[in-house]
Amino acid sequence: MEKLSSDDSNRNVHGLSHGGKILLFTCKRDPAVSVRERSGLTFRSFYFEREGNAFLNATEGATVISRKPSAHVDIVTCKCAVDVQKRVKTAFVLVTKMSEKGSSFKYSLLALRSSHRLEPCIEFKLPYQMKGKVSILQGPTVMWSHDNSVSYTSPEAEGVRKIPIQMSKCLFGELPIQKGQLFALGLSEPLLANHSPTLGYLCEGGQAFDGSLVLPHPYICITQCMRVLTADRVDDVLRCTVVAATSNQQLVLFENGTVKDTCEVPFGQAEDIQMADTGRNGCLFVVSFNQGHVCAVWKETFQMASCWSDVDSAHVDDFLGCGTEQILLIFRNNGISSGPLEKFIITDLCGISYSCGQGSEAPKASLPPQENSLLTLQALESRLQSGLIVLQELEREVRVKDRVLQQSIQVLTDVLSGRETVLSQPEQEGLVALWDSDEESNDETPDDKLHETPALSSRPKIDKLWHRITEEQLVVGLILTADSAIPASGVSLSLLTEPGQNSTPAVIQTRSQVFWLPARGPSTPTLSSPSPGFAFSEPAAKRSRQHIASDDFSAGRLAVTAVTKLAPLLTSGCVKCRAMLHYAEKAEAVFPGSGPTTAVLHCGEVSLDIRNLCQKPLLQNPQIKTDEVREDLLSLLTVLDNWVLRIDSPDYSLGDIDGWIKRREGFKKIDVSPEYLLLDSPGSSAPMLLRWHQINPFQGDLSIHSSQLQMLQFLDSMLSYLPDSCFIQPVKRARSQSTAQKLACALEKEVLSLREGLSSLLCVKDEEERKERRAGHGETPDSGSAEDLVRCCREAWQQNVEKSRLRLNPVVDAGRYREMVQSISQVKMDSDLAALCQLNQS
């Protein structure tokens, strides 16, 4: 729906949405300087202001269509289409000027090249007036039908062209494949040989195709408007998904020419179908009907969402600038107001709702601000995480109090029983002693005081917070000091958006990894972890003391990274993020009954600056040893997919594979971590990291950090160097396949455990039966009479019948059965956890 209501001074008002704004085109007569009058086209653009809950005028302009006072100028249609030459979506308006005698009509397609200037794009003449459906498609291309013939024109066509096939009941559209294909669909008249009654014609290629691949033949006559959602060519056969509105008051979804789903709509005479993407809440089909009716249908469920009446025009765009699309409904003024944007509703049917002139007539300033459900959910998530942090701190204090009470009870029991009381150190409980014991102060020497220093705080200490932009993703890294007394297991990093004036912090979806770094020494540190995700686990006895007592652990640091997509942050306007460190506090060894707890630490904020962060010293000079180079390396290891391949050569030694890799053109050693080699050639789409670990002369591990295509290309060239008898097998699947591989292994383990558990129970039962048969096999009747022999045979037969019945319904040992059920339950829990991880990733 494009036409808008207007007053007496304006004629033929049309509107469209472009770039989050509303454009209004009006044909009117403006008095000139001279006595003569001229017919012109004026346009205005409006943007929506949330605080004022109104559309404000942004720009306006005008252009002259004709200087003849008797010329009759009208707007035919206006539409946003892709300008192929400029590769941008542009607003176009088609106007017509009738000659004085009415024998010819001159049409002009004008493009809005800037916010204040209209430029002519196509001009052509017709001996008749366009009536019925006129479409502006990509190119731009103007397509219309007249007397069972379809005509079109574009800047490349250089004039009006007519399709060489006569068609009735025509429908126009474009296929979203490659550069796009414009097509006309209808009933061929007369019926062509070797063609179906439903015929389609591609305007750019000049080819006819079977139209039933788009719409079935019975639906051509009743389809009023359509929209192609997806299209592709598979083995030279067109595959597409189409939604169409029919005259039977139905919205029908077609897949490859067959009906997939239908939805009853409350109105008839559909004119246009638009699609609104509301983000995580799904997509909506917005169908406009004649006589001012509009309805919305959910794409996923194909169910009616809402409907409206007395609508002048409906538009779909991001009017609020929040990254998702909304529906703008402009209602008819009915002569009450001259402004075309006085009565409207902006909604996405998911929480966003702004209205004016509907319902209450209270002053605009007193209207309460409308809230978005998405912002509400983000605020609830942030409040939930803040409440979780407070709850964790309270739980930690409660556990400390419980341990003190337990020790007090133990001391009281020991005093009453006459036993010696052994108390733990206050630092071990995270407490501060109010006084020191005289015996301990007398016994301690200065050397003991140096070695037995008070326990460090359980909170980790931050050495540096950094961030990089790598492969269209934001990587935030955190390096902990060497004296941070936390194990690497259970450590992760998450990001929160920085709250603005009218917003609340939101949790950003991230993927976290942990790396192991040597401590900062006289020389620049190197990355010593063999692969991302390596976690150092501290012994239980040292975890209980909460201070660094191991030389190996004190010699190294932890680097924690979090990666997230950059585009949603920039789209939402978020330029600052908060870094939150999640770590596990281990239980004390003296109280094994208490379990591990998790804590959250705010580590600082990062600000996005694309101009500075895009500079990567590692790619410019891998031979330098700086902190920035190490951070670039950590960013690449976090973003790139990882493959670890085991290479075995049973017949011949592998040779100098490390030297062969270094001799390849483009590979450079990274001095900050010499075990890694970098390939950053101009032809490759992304950098590539390699690490070779020689286990023995016949076996080694190759770590590859790159895209899948680069990995396959490198392995193809490497196979020419390796011996023919060697074979390569993956040690670890790619990151994109890890959850699926874990789920498959868990299900396989579950099936094997069930089969082996039942088999073991039945085998034990059969073994017991065989022992009983061997024990009773030698028994013979004492007497050789026939009656005793018959009696013995009858008893043996009855025993066999009973054993057969028990074999069909076996009775097993309760203890073994309980052990088997516990084992299978544990395996099933692991498989359920793997399935949940796979579901979250998908």
UniProtKB/TrEMBL annotation:
Biological-process GO terms, alphabetical: interstrand cross-link repair; negative regulation of double-strand break repair via homologous recombination; positive regulation of double-strand break repair via homologous recombination; replication-born double-strand break repair via sister chromatid exchange
GO cellular component, one term: Fanconi anaemia nuclear complex
Acidic residues composition bias: residue spans: 436-446
Region of interest called Disordered, as start-end residue ranges on this chain: 436-456
The protein, known as: FA complementation group B
